[in-house]
Design goal:
Layout: H1 33-64, H2 70-104
Helix pairs in contact: 1-2
Length: about 110
């Protein structure tokens, strides 16, 4: 058995992305704004979904631990309502982007 210190290259066969190879193509003259936005949209929608989940969990925990306090219950209901309204807005935005992309022939 060999220890990692005894191996000449522990990352042999594993390609590590570098600026030249993967993350950004530096040989490309320029990126257009639409390409940047199209590349970021899936990550933005995923981030919005995670925030929705966290906000719903936080509102639910606050509601369960309110102990019957009307002020705390209203605050928790407001958080849950805000999260659901945000979900509807993000869901509608996703489909609007998809429809506009289809109409204009842009791959999003």
């Amino acid at each position: 058995m060999r220890n990692v210190a005894q191996v000449d290259n522990p990352f042999k066969g594993i390609e590590i992305p570098t600026v030249e190879k993967g993350i950004v193509d530096i040989n490309r003259p320029s990126l257009k704004l639409g390409e940047i936005v199209s590349g970021l949209l899936p990550y933005l929608f995923a981030g919005a979904g995670l925030l929705l989940l966290l906000y719903l969990i936080f509102g639910g925990i606050q509601f369960m631990t309110s102990g019957g306090d009307p002020k705390a219950m209203e605050s928790a209901k407001g958080k849950i309502t805000g999260a659901l309204i945000g979900f509807i807005i993000v869901f509608a935005a996703y489909w609007i982007v998809q429809i506009v992309g289809t109409i204009l022939g842009i791959e999003v």
